[in-house]
Design brief:
This protein has about 400 residues and is α+β, with helices and mostly antiparallel strands. It has seven helices and 20 strands. It has two domains: about 260 residues, no CATH class; about 110 residues, Immunoglobulin-like. The protein binds zinc ion. Keywords: Signal.
Length: about 400
Amino acid sequence: MFSKIRKRRIAWFAACLAAAFSTVAVVQTAFAATGCRVDYAVTSQWSGGFQGSITLVNLGDRLENWTLNFAFPDANQKVDQGWNAEWTQSGTAVTVRNAGWNGTVAAGASVTAGFTGRFSGANPVPASFSLNGTTCTGAVATSPTPSASVTPSASVTPSASPSSADPWNPPSTLVAPLAAVWEHQEDTYSDLYGFKNYGWDQLFANNGTINYCVRWDSAKQVSTAQRDAVHAALQKQYQKWMDQLTGWNAWPYQQVKVNVVGWAVRDRAQLEWTDSSVDIYVNDIREDAPQCSEPCGRFFHQDGNYSGCTGGTSRHYDHSLWLTDGFNGGAGGDWGQRIGTEYFMSNLTTENVHVLLHEIGHTYGLDDFYDWDPLDGKQGFIMMAGSATEITEFDKWMLRDWWRHLKSRYGL
Ligand SMILES: [Zn+2]
């Protein structure tokens, strides 16, 4: 249900990673290059028991989820307990499915999971592994990805074509790259036109405002001044994206007001204010982190019914800003943005909080660019993690492309 998160380090900073929209069942390429290598290791062994490890090396296109299958050669080999994945066994057949947080594996990246098991007699190594139904050969094969959740965009996707009256006037050098980006999104998002919880949808549901709740996934204290500075930083960074739309193609909101309506913490004493300017949620834990009340959250109530929210509709939140101690990089989606506490709190007055900007881009549907570059390396842009520290002309037009495709939803 929640978005996939992976970490990737870039030379001069650790940047984001995950485009996933949490309520899109699976974002998967309809025609994916699949290729894999699996390293299986017995990392320790004792009388009747052992610890095993598998490392999946993704030689194909980026994975949004993965299932590995293999068979134990010996009927007495059993998985007892696994980690970093869901492990199940039937007879000798073992299925290893990604955990909620490591389903996304970039092209060329790897993921490791482990288990403890039992055996008697020999403890032979499995001979063959398959990834999402395709045998891992160490080479790459291009094939239709068999997946029930892939929506064939040509046949059943509701159309959302821009009207011919809509302007489309990007700089001429960007026309072809922008078309390639849109086509790539159509190919790789499972429900590009049917999904109804993009940042756009949230913004229009609130007539041009966005409410945030902060998930303070940290052991640190927060002063009143820091609280207010977090709000100010969110407002300023958010508006940087909104400014890209000003005056173009009937965009209706010149200023988007960002409200911070709540904070979620493990311990109330971490928050050093006593006023009631925000709602405070204490020790409501989800994904091992404090969260704001689910009845108040847009992610949980996409129909806009916040009747269970203690603070009422005005205190509902659209996005979570999830700040995690020691978190390198980030993640973004319709649920909000996740970045490191240390990075964000030390950049509250930085002109461009580029990791946050990148993640907000995901909230508005923009994709990641790990495995291809529509600009052929000629210029960086904020959605290509690590290549730019501010919103560029190309980012602007990618955002505008989303707007022209979705605006008919809002009667504009
Ligand atoms: Zn990203």
